[in-house]
Design a protein that fits this description.
Helix content: 25-40%
Order of helices and strands: EHEHEHEHEEHEHEHH
Strand order of the largest sheet: 1-8-7-6-5-4-3-2
Structural class: alpha/beta
Largest sheet: 8 strands, parallel
Bound molecules: D-xylitol-5-phosphate, zinc ion
Shape: globular
Number of strands: 8
Strand content: 15-25%
Number of helices: 8
């Protein structure tokens, strides 16, 4: 599986979202969209109407990351709207199997997100129900936080679990991913990389995506899990 880059528009200019998406469109694989409800996390961002508008203005597939208390209620609508991936958090799901299946039934990829202090092992039996596992590498809620190295052992265990189940589930990291930390993530087993401030805080967001991708590719090539 090739390295995939998902710039997060959380660090973009929210008044110019179409332009900010266009700035990375030639080099990104996904546009990562952080949906926050001020309950699951202490921050409020954007919801379905903005996602629907964004879909009209970018050709990039949207990777919607729902940090909300009622993912069971809201996730299928993001998939129906046209998001290519919808990630829901294990800590908030009431009916994980039903909701993940509804996401897939609506034509999207289904992602399962877990916070830094949430163990991955209890979700092994759900691997067949998901297309991507998201390991948060900061406490969710804000961009620009410091990467939590304490997640790296879990990332290695998650990679081993995924490989044991055929290796088709993507392993995404989100939070504090930068030129200082992306190689550690790739070596530990991540293959999809979200980066907000490291991309939109740079003078040239597209060049930042390319540089991060090259770093991740080099680190993946020398990693023990790859190949
Ligand atoms: C945080 C969000 C992230 C955020 C990452 O809760 O889920 O997607 O945009 O931002 P950086 O890359 O700046 O840590
Ligand atoms: Zn995110």
């Amino acid at each position: 599986m090739a390295v995939q880059m998902a710039p997060s528009i959380l660090s973009a200019d929210f008044a110019r979202l179409a332009d900010e998406a266009a700035a990375v469109a030639p080099v990104a694989d996904w546009l990562h969209v952080d949906v926050m409800d001020n309950h699951f996390v202490p921050n409020l961002t954007i919801g379905l109407p903005v996602v629907e508008s964004l879909l009209k203005h970018t050709g990039l597939p949207l990777d919607c990351h729902l940090m909300i208390t009622e993912p069971d209620q809201w996730a299928p609508a993001y998939a129906e709207a046209g998001a290519r991936n919808v990630t829901v958090h294990a800590e908030a799901l009431q009916s994980p199997v039903r909701t993940l299946r509804l996401i897939r039934a609506a034509g999207a990829r289904a992602g399962l997100g877990i916070n830094p202090a949430t163990a991955v092992e209890p979700y092994e039996d759900l691997l067949a129900e998901i297309d991507m596992l998201l390991l948060m590498t900061v406490e969710p809620g804000f961009g620009g936080q410091s990467f939590l190295d304490l997640v790296l052992p879990k990332l290695r265990r998650a990679r081993a679990l995924v490989q044991r189940h055929g290796g088709s589930v993507w392993l995404q990291v989100d939070g504090g991913v930068s030129e200082d930390t992306i190689e550690r993530c790739a070596e530990a087993g991540a293959d999809v990389f979200v980066a907000g401030s490291a991309v939109y805080g740079a003078d040239d967001p597209a060049a930042a995506v390319q540089a991060l991708r090259e770093q991740a590719q080099r680190a993946t090539a020398r990693s023990a899990w790859h190949g």
